[in-house]
Every structure is written in structure tokens, then in C-alpha cells.
Design brief:
The protein is mainly beta and 791 residues long. The protein contains 6 helices and 43 strands. The relative contact order is 0.07. Keywords: Calcium, Cell adhesion, Cell junction, Cell membrane, Glycoprotein, Membrane, Metal-binding, Repeat, Signal, Transmembrane, Transmembrane helix.
Length: 791
């Protein structure tokens, strides 16, 4: 018994022990014993002793309760309530009457509606017991708290989504992209309702996410912005630690690959032809050339320079900042009669270089510029307002494709061409190819033929000539796109894992027709094959099952594609097939082989060692708990002996008004005189069934007689309570060889005391000396076992 109370005699000690037992019978009931004034020995030695007041325990109510009946919360009870409906319980405070209600007679508290912990986590109320007739408070008003117990009813949410991020192209694996955070409104201190785990649903195998921190990183090396610039990644946050049944929320992250200078500038052709009248002013622009750079922004800025050489001193070149074109400027006056043509080279280079990509090659390109100086005279007259001509692509250079004629009223004329792909005879006006033509680059040329007077270049006449480039079957077909193909480890035999198609740069005459096959038709391959569907598509089909990333992660499958032209052309493409882990429905989970090999590094011996350590820790914890319980256990009676030497401690909780056998009063009697038959104390026994009075032992006859007399008086008392009750009697006995057992003179604190002197008080105190001696000792074998397991 862990309370300090004045005991004037063993009888008072026994009374306090029984009172404390009654107060702890129902720990889930809010009760109050009220003030108690007890007189001892007829009031000659009486004094006031106030027992414990309200005994509180935390009340809980489950949130989001969906039952049809009000939810039971707890019970209020005071010891002044004798069960005769004379006490009324009242409730006030947060939600009293609207959210919580109390049965004024029984004290039962119920919640009237469903509660949300995220709205209000707890409610503070006040309770009071009053007389039902006079409304006079029987006890002071007390305050208590009802806490709303959390359930997992809120999914994680990304408050700032959708997100945008960027990462430089060509970044290595593991480059940081950004961090996303999801919040869960559930209670983080209770269970796993607010423990969030992140995963990536869409965006593999390009990016990965850390399941604990939400940090997104690159998962593939050397991603090229010029191939694909924008990626959309879908991230999922799931509570309950990602376990089954947890709630999940998703967000989208738009990741853009930022540009780096990994592409050099390139001229579209190696020779540029320009025509410049000799009358052009110094400082004027005489032509434009351009080198194309696949990069953007400052990485695509191009600088042009004229390589020193023939004709370079007559011209200068500058860069147009808006479109990165090279503008050729005239530095000195031109004279047709002195020099009719100039040739020089122009070099294009990047203005901002990135040293990380120097190994890609020189970031510059050169092209030749040919400038013809035009003479000025009266313009001649062409025979037609416009001309149209046809020519097949790849026609040999110098082939005549047509002619234009112009008449000059003056003597002599000289037709000329302003397009570098064609040349014109200045006398006959025949137009011939100057370069190999490519329909896929330019399908139609619109050129202008200028006829100038020989003796007066200023006088010119211009006519439009349209040249149609006709297609020939010169390009073999190729795969329509770079396919990213994967095969599941659980793939079945004959399963189509990818559908492919082809494209051809040639102009289709009556619709393109493609066929697909594996190389060396008829030779059996053991992994994959190509199945032509006959509609310009084909499927990649598995020839076996049981693919394992541990055995081989990547397979390369060649595909032969043929077109349907007059001269059939074919090409062989290669598909890269990754072995990936998939869900039961075939959805991609992961293509990384590293996750497969993570458990391999842990040997069987290491696992056994870990398990042995865990078992040892569990045994130590069990022993520690057992020792602690033995130290704190305060059993006041270990054997059935004389009641004057022992106080019996028993944990028997009453069952309410209906339970009439809750208290076994026989435990208080001398064990030598206990009878087997027990009788109810809530009804008056019949005379014929009265038990025979036990014969008291010689050592306890006075106590037995005293209790028997008090029992007879209590049985005949008409004012006794009808149900569970406990009658206590203050009887000190006829004398003792020991001094007073009162705790008034007890030493304060937790200091251990030596109780060996109790062995000197005689046989009556032998059991008491054994009880107190047992409390101060700890079994030596417990320390030996703990030390053994620690070693």
C-alpha cells in the first residue's frame, strides 16, 4: 500500500486496506469517496481522516464513429451514490449537451455525433454530483478531458503541386532535381497514419524518388535535350508506411532538361553562291549565310569569321543577334571589268564553350562563299512570263533541264541564275544542274533568271522559273522512332511486348508499304522474334519465358525493314530490350538491376547472428521486467495463517449491482475455520439454513467472537444496503507484545529499512518478518542470468 495514513491499531490498518481496495476496483470509473469522519473505539480516540477525492482516468472517443447508437465514452461515479437514485450527475464545458450527454442517474457519458480529430483534438468538460431533490452540490465541481482518438482518415496531400523543375541535359545518374513534400493531417504521434512513403508512378526509367525524403534524382545518364526536352513525372505519397490499406495522394512534376553547349554549329551546305551588282555601295549587305546550332540560348550563339585568303579583303561578315545569321558586308567598291568573281571561306564557331564536351570534337565549321559580280545594262525581255521545269533528284551535275530565252533590243544580252543549285548558259539560256538535288531537302526550287545587258549591267530583266524535283527510291526505310522496349520477368511465351512501325523519306507513289523480319530468316532465335502484321507494323514476340535481370539485363534484337519501291531498299535497325520487374497486370515497376542484388551481400551467417542478438535482447528485457515486477510487488500474505498477522491482498473486481458474490468475506476469517458453503449477504438467511458458527482457534478466539457478534448485528440491521457492501470493524484486540504499528512515526522517503528485528518479537510476527524481508532481497540467480546473457 503506497500511501501514508495514520493507523492507531491493526484494526485501522485493515480498514484502510479494504477502503483502498474498493476505490481501485473500477479504474475506468470517475469516482469520489467524499469526506469521511470516522470515530475509533466509541469516539474516545476519534479524529478526522479525509480519503481520496475524484479518481481520474483519461477518457477517449474514437473519431469518425459511424455506428447507429451514440458512442459510449465513460462513466462518472461518486461513493455518495448508494444506488437509490438520490444523486444527479451534471456535465458542462466543451460540447456538453450538444456533442456529449450524460445520464443524470447512472453517470454514463455518450457522444451524440461523429467527431473529427483534425477539427478539434480534445474537449474539456466539468462534472458535478448534486442532490437530485435539492440540487445541492454533493462534491466540488471537477474538470476532465475527453481526447479524440485518431484514425487514418486523411490521405497525404501535396500542397504546392503541380511542380516544375529543370535539370541540365547530359547529367550523370543521381543528379538532384528537386524535393517534394506531402503532408498528412492525421496524428503523427499515433500509429503510422501520418508516416508517408514516396514512390514514382510515371517517369521511369528516367527519374527516381527517395521513398523517405521525397528527393527526385536522375536515373539515366546522358539524357539529350535535343532528343526529348520535357518529362512528366507522377509521384505518389502513401501513408501507413506504404503498407496495404494506406491512403495515397499524387502530384505531377514537369521536368525540363535545360540546355548545355553539347552541339557545334553546322552549315547546311559547303558552298554558298551570291550575286552582287558592281554598283553595290560600300558597307551594304551583299548576302546572308547561316550555320545551324541545335542548342538554344547563349549556347547557340555563333561567331562568323572570314578566313584570310583570296577575296577576303573585299568583304566583311557580322552576326545578326536575332537569328544568328552571318551578314556579308561589302568593304571596297566592285568593278565588273576588273574582276567578275570572288571566292573565300567563312568559319562559324560557338561563342560560349563548355569544357566538359571538348571531347565531342571541334565546335566550329567552315563553308566556301562564291560571289559573282554582275554588270549593269538595259534589261532584256523574256519570251514567257514564267517557266516550269521537272528534274529527277540525284540527276548528275551539268544535266540540262530546260532553257529560257530573252531578247534584247540592244546588242548582246547575258541571262544569269540567282540560285546556287542551277547554272545557266549566258548565251543560249539553257539551265543545268549545278549540284545534286535532293527532294527530301527541297522539293521545289523557285529561281529567278536575270538577263542583263553585256554593256550595261544596270539594265536587267527578271523571270521566275519553277523547278519540280521528282522523287526516286533512294532512301531505305528505318524505324519510326527510337523505341524504349522492355520485357517483364514474368512474360509468357508468344507474348507481344512491343509494336513497331517504319518511316521512309521518299515520296510515296501509291502509299508506302513496309515489311519486317528478323535477319537470317529461318534461323531459330532463342529469345525474341519479329512478327509482321501486314499493315506496316510488326510486333516483337517472346520465344521463351523466365527472363531474369540477374542473368541478363539487356538484349539487342536486329530488325530488317524493306520498302515496296521499284528498287527495293532495306535497312537493319536494332531494338534494345530491357528486362524489367512488372506488376501482376504487366505494369512496369522497375528496370534497375541494383535492387535485385541488394539482399545478396548479406550472408546466412550474418542473418543467424542478427537473429541470435535479437533473441538475447528479448530474454534480457523479459528478465528485467520480471525483476522489476518482483521488486514492486507488495503481497502482504503468502500463506493462510492467523488473520492478526497478515492482511490479505486480492484483485477481485466487483461486477456491479447484479453480482452478489463479488466479495468473499471468508478471506477475512481465520483460515482454520473457513467453511465451504458461502451465503449471500444481500438477503436475510433463513433460520434453518444459518451456518454453524465456526469454532475459533485458541490464539484468535477473541477476534472470532467479535466478528461473529458484529455479523449477527449486521444481518439483523434493516438499514443495511441490499447489495454489494463491505462492513469494517475497529477492534484492536486484547493486547500485543509489540509496540504500536502506526505509521505516524515512520521515516519519510524511500530509504530501505532493516526488518530483521521482527524475528525477535515472537512467533506471532514470524510471517510479517518474512514478508518485509522478502521485499528487500532480490534473487541472486537473476543477476547471474542477466550477466551470463550480456557476456
Amino acid at each position: 500500500i503506497n500511501r501514508r495514513t495514520v493507523h492507531s491499531s491493526p484494526r485501522a490498518f485493515l480498514e484502510d486496506a479494504l477502503s483502498i481496495y474498493v476505490s481501485v476496483l473500477s479504474p475506468n470509473i470517475l469516482s469520489d469517496t467524499g469526506p469521511l469522519a470516522a470515530g475509533r473505539n466509541g469516539g474516545s480516540r476519534g479524529f478526522q481522516r479525509v480519503k481520496r477525492g475524484w479518481v481520474w482516468n483519461q477518457f477517449f472517443v474514437l473519431e469518425e464513429y459511424m455506428g447507429s447508437d451514440p458512442q459510449y465514452v465513460g462513466k462518472l461515479h461518486t461513493d455518495l451514490d448508494k444506488g437509490d437514485s438520490a444523486v444527479k450527475y451534471t456535465l458542462s464545458g466543451d460540447g456538453a449537451g450538444t456533442i456529449f450527454t450524460i445520464d443524470q442517474i447512472t453517470g454514463d457519458i455518450h457522444a451524440l455525433r461523429s467527431l473529427d480529430r483534425e477539427v478539434k483534438p480534445y474537449y474539456t468538460l466539468r462534472a458535478q454530483a448534486v442532490d437530485i431533490e435539492t440540487n445541492r452540490p454533493l462534491e466540488p465541481e471537477s474538470e476532465f478531458v475527453i481526447k479524440v482518438q485518431d484514425i487514418n482518415d486523411n490521405e497525404p496531400k501535396f500542397l504546392e503541386g503541380p511542380y516544375t523543375a529543370s535539370v541540365p541535359e547530359m547529367s550523370p545518374v543521381g543528379t538532384y532535381v528537386m524535393k517534394v513534400t506531402a503532408t498528412d493531417a492525421d496524428d503523427p504521434t499515433y500509429g503510422n497514419s501520418a508516416r508517408v512513403v514516396y514512390s514514382i508512378l510515371h517517369g521511369q526509367p528516367y527519374f527516381s524518388v527517395d521513398p523517405k525524403t521525397g528527393v527526385i534524382r536522375t536515373a539515366l545518364p546522358n539524357m539529350d535535350r535535343e532528343m526529348k526536352e520535357l518529362y512528366q513525372v507522377l509521384i505518389q505519397a502513401k501513408d501507413m508506411g506504404g503498407q496495404l490499406g494506406g491512403l495515397a495522394g499524387t502530384t505531377t512534376i514537369n521536368i525540363t532538361l535545360s540546355d548545355v553547349n553539347d552541339n557545334p554549329p553546322r552549315f547546311s551546305k559547303s558552298i554558298f553562291h551570291l550575286r552582287v551588282p558592281e554598283s553595290s555601295a560600300v558597307g551594304s549587305a551583299v548576302g546572308r549565310i547561316k550555320a545551324h546550332d541545335l542548342d538554344i540560348g547563349k549556347n547557340a550563339e555563333v561567331e562568323y569569321n572570314i578566313v584570310p585568303g583570296d577575296g577576303g579583303a573585299m568583304f566583311d561578315i557580322t552576326t545578326n543577334e536575332h537569328n544568328q545569321e552571318g551578314i556579308i558586308m561589302l568593304k571596297k567598291p566592285l568593278d565588273y571589268e576588273t574582276k567578275k568573281a570572288y571566292t573565300f571561306k567563312v568559319e562559324a564557331s560557338n561563342a560560349h564553350l563548355d569544357p566538359r564536351f571538348h571531347n565531342f570534337g571541334p565546335f566550329k565549321d567552315t563553308a566556301t562563299v562564291k560571289i559573282n559580280v554582275l554588270d549593269v545594262d538595259e534589261p532584256p525581255v523574256f519570251s514567257k512570263p514564267s517557266y516550269a521545269m521537272d528534274v529527277y533528284e540525284d540527276t548528275p551535275q551539268g544535266t540540262i533541264i530546260g532553257a529560257v530565252t530573252a531578247q534584247d533590243l540592244d546588242a548582246g544580252n547575258s541571262p544569269s541564275d540567282l540560285d546556287s543549285f542551277f547554272d545557266i548558259d549566258p548565251v543560249r539560256g539553257t539551265i543545268s544542274t549545278n549540284e545534286l538535288l535532293d527532294r527530301e531537302s527541297i522539293a521545289q526550287h523557285n529561281i529567278s533568271v536575270v538577263a542583263t545587258k553585256v554593256n550595261n549591267p544596270v539594265l536587267t530583266s527578271k523571270v521566275a522559273v519553277t523547278v519540280h524535283v521528282l522523287d526516286i527510291n533512294e532512301f531505305p526505310p528505318e524505324l519510326a522512332m527510337p523505341y524504349e522496349t522492355f520485357v517483364c520477368e514474368s512474360a509468357k511465351v508468344g507474348q507481344v511486348i512491343q509494336v513497331i512501325s517504319a518511316r521512309d523519306q521518299d515520296l510515296p507513289q501509291a502509299g508506302q508499304k513496309f515489311s519486317f523480319k528478323s535477319p537470317q530468316e529461318g534461323v531459330k532465335t532463342k529469345n525474341f522474334t519479329i512478327r509482321d502484321f501486314g499493315n506496316n507494323t510488326a510486333g516483337v514476340m517472346t520465344l521463351r519465358g523466365g527472363f531474369k535481370r540477374r542473368s541478363q539485363e539487356i538484349y539487342h534484337l536486329p530488325v530488317v525493314i524493306e520498302d515496296g519501291g521499284l528498287q527495293t531498299l532495306s535497312s537493319t535497325g536494332t531494338l534494345t530490350i530491357r528486362v524489367c520487374g512488372c506488376d501482376t497486370d504487366g505494369s512496369l515497376l522497375t528496370c534497375s538491376a541494383e535492387a535485385i542484388f541488394l539482399p545478396v551481400g548479406l550472408s546466412t551467417g550474418a542473418l543467424i547472428a542478427i537473429l541470435v542478438c535479437i533473441v538475447i535482447l528479448l530474454v534480457i528485457v523479459v528478465l528485467y521486467v520480471g525483476v522489476r515486477r518482483q521488486k514492486k510487488k507488495e503481497t502482504l500474505m503468502t500463506s493462510k495463517e492467523d488473520i492478526r498477522d497478515n492482511v490479505i491482498h486480492y484483485d477481485d473486481e466487483g461486477g456491479g449491482e447484479e453480482d452478489t458474490h463479488a466479495f468473499d468475506m471468508g478471506t477475512l476469517r481465520n483460515p482454520k475455520v473457513i467453511k465451504e458453503n458461502m451465503f449471500r449477504r444481500d438477503v436475510k438467511p433463513e433460520l434453518g439454513l444459518c451456518p454453524r458458527r465456526p469454532v475459533a482457534s485458541q490464539n484468535s478466539a477473541d477476534i472470532s467472537n467479535f466478528i461473529s457478534l458484529r455479523l449477527q448485528e449486521h444481518e439483523g440491521d434493516t438499514s443495511a444496503p441490499p447489495y454489494d457492501s463491505l462492513a469494517t470493524y475497529a477492534y484492536e484486540g486484547e493486547g500485543s507484545v509489540a509496540e504500536s504499528l502506526s505509521s505516524i512515526e515512520s521515516v519519510k522517503g524511500e530509504t530501505e529499512e532493516d526488518y530483521d528485528y521482527l524475528n525477535e518479537w515472537g512467533p506471532r510476527f514470524k510471517t510479517l518478518a518474512g514478508i518485509f524481508g522478502e521485499r528487500s532481497e532480490m534473487p541472486q540467480w537473476s543477476w547471474f542470468v542477466i550477466l551470463l546473457f550480456m557476456v
